[in-house]
Design brief:
single chain, 7 helices, alpha+beta, Dna Ligase, domain 1
């Protein structure tokens, strides 16, 4: 998982992502001033994220340059690559679990009901909101009560992202929506979402047993397809006694 690389790939495919700047720890040590100048061109407030982590670990929302420097220092305690990106005004945050290899199955569009400024580690794991398991629990709203056009775009972008990134089995695509400008952005992709998002699939009529069984079937299908590929190539390029076999 690389949040910056994901954004680069998606943007190249015409999928909307929020403006961002990424850099390594070495970049920051050598070119801090120029990077600060580059970051200043983004619209504040900003989010600072370790590129390879999830669960909001090391993540911070910053509103001024002093907070920015501190947040970057914290992020570099967890990772050697950091992402700084614009926040989205008038925010509607939704997420879409998708399952499949070539044929995709969509779960319900879910809207987290966080009551804090952003959905942090405590909200995700310590609030106890998921335990109710209902359609409208403390944790989320399924299906999300959003404009029908937003729901359509989320599903269309979600499937395109899944295919562009070569996902298989199960993934969860997160989206940020500006309710005023009507702009939908892809935020990030979770390739193995915690709990497999079984609560969402259950509401869509897929039991926990069916979910696990389906994932096993998808894994077997993928393995079978991989077995049909050739992984060796005969060549004399490294010929010594009698030809060489190059494997990948």
């Amino acid at each position: 998982m690389d949040k910056a690389l994901t954004k680069q790939v998606l943007a190249a495919e015409g999928i909307p992502v929020v403006p961002y700047v990424w850099f390594t720890k070495t970049d920051w040590q050598k070119n801090q001033s120029s990077l600060e100048q580059k970051i200043s061109q983004l619209n504040w407030p900003l989010f600072v994220k370790p590129v390879h982590l999830g669960s909001s670990i090391g993540l911070a929302k910053v509103k001024d340059p002093t907070e920015l420097i501190r947040a970057i220092e914290v992020a570099f305690h967890y990772d050697d690559k950091v992402l700084v990106e614009e926040s989205v005004a008038n925010l509607i945050e939704v997420t879409l679990p998708i399952m499949g290899n070539d044929e995709l199955q969509l779960a319900g569009v879910e809207r987290p009901l966080n009551k804090t400024e952003f959905f942090d580690f405590s909200d995700k794991y310590l609030s106890g909101g998921k335990k109710s398991g209902g359609v409208n629990n403390q944790y989320s709203e399924i299906p999300a009560q959003i404009d029908e056009d937003f729901s359509r775009q989320v599903k269309e972008f979600g499937q395109k992202v899944y295919r562009v990134l070569g996902c298989s089995g199960l993934a969860r695509i997160d989206f940020l929506i500006n309710a005023e400008t009507k702009q939908v952005y892809v935020n990030e992709v979770n390739t193995l979402p915690g709990s497999l998002y079984h609560h969402n699939w259950k509401i869509m009529g897929v039991s926990g047993v069916e979910l696990v069984t389906k994932l096993v079937t998808l894994a077997e299908e993928r393995f079978k397809n991989q077995q049909a590929l050739t992984y060796t190539f005969q060549s004399s390029i490294l010929q010594q006694a009698g030809g060489a076999k190059i494997s990948r």
